[in-house]
Amino acid sequence: MKMKKIFILIALFAFVGTGCKYFKKKPKVDPVAIQKAKEDSIKRAQELEAEQVRLALEQARQDSLAKVQEYESKFRFHVIIGSFKVPSNATNWEQEVRGMGYNGTKILHAKNGFDLVSIAAYDTYSKAFNEIERINADKEEPIELWIYENI
């Protein structure tokens, strides 16, 4: 019986002394480290959000450029009302032409260095020519217009 008690005591000490989770010390929590980790996490989230916004804006810009290029490749026949070597002259003439009622004006930069004032753009040469005919149909002295193909 004495041996049985000794055996039980040894087993009990072995069980209690070898690492019962109830007797382990809990590590101390550093509140400064926790606050720093929170701040770092917030900063990373803000940086990620800023990057996503930047990427979305860049994608929107690319989409817009693609639409402009698609439009310009489709409507490449322009009715030109003036051609200027000095850019400010083209800008001034465009404003004057808008005053005449041509609201779809645009300044094109030709390969020869001239700035062209366009009053309309069409997808075919014949439509652009028909517009010139329409504009000059009731004029006693026709307006000097020509067609420029923007390639």
Question: Notable features of this structure?
Answer:
2 domains, Alpha-Beta Plaits, 4 strands, alpha+beta, 4 helices, four-stranded antiparallel β-sheet, 151 residues
Quick description:
The protein has 151 residues and is an alpha+beta fold. It has four helices and four strands.
Characterize the structure shown.
With 151 residues, the protein is of the alpha+beta class. It has 2 domains: 28-74; 76-149, Sporulation related repeat (Alpha-Beta Plaits, 2-Layer Sandwich). The chain contains 4 helices and 4 strands; from the N terminus they run H-H-E-H-E-E-H-E. The protein has helices at residues 2-17, 31-74, 87-99, 125-136, and strands spanning 77-84, 106-109, 115-122, 146-149. A 4-stranded antiparallel β-sheet has the order 2-3-1-4. Strand 2 and strand 3 (115-122) form a beta hairpin. It is rod-shaped and about 135 Å long. The termini are far apart. The model has no long low-confidence stretch (mean pLDDT 86).
Over all CA atoms, what is the radius of gyration? 40 Å
- Quick one: biggest sheet? 4 strands, antiparallel
Termini separation: 109 Å
- When the domains are counted, the total is 2
So what's the overall shape?
rod-shaped
List the helices and strands in order. HHEHEEHE
The residue ranges in which pLDDT falls below 50 over 5 or more consecutive positions are none
Look at the structure and name the CATH superfamily of the largest domain. Sporulation related repeat
In order across it, which strands form the biggest sheet? Answer: 2-3-1-4
Task: Quote the average pLDDT.
Answer: 86
CATH class of the largest domain: Alpha Beta
Quickly give the structural class: alpha+beta
What portion of the residues fall into strands of 2 or more residues? 15-25%
Number of helices: 4
Q: What is CATH's topology name of the largest domain?
A: Alpha-Beta Plaits
Number of strands: 4
| CATH architecture label of the largest domain | 2-Layer Sandwich
Share of helix, binned? 55-70%
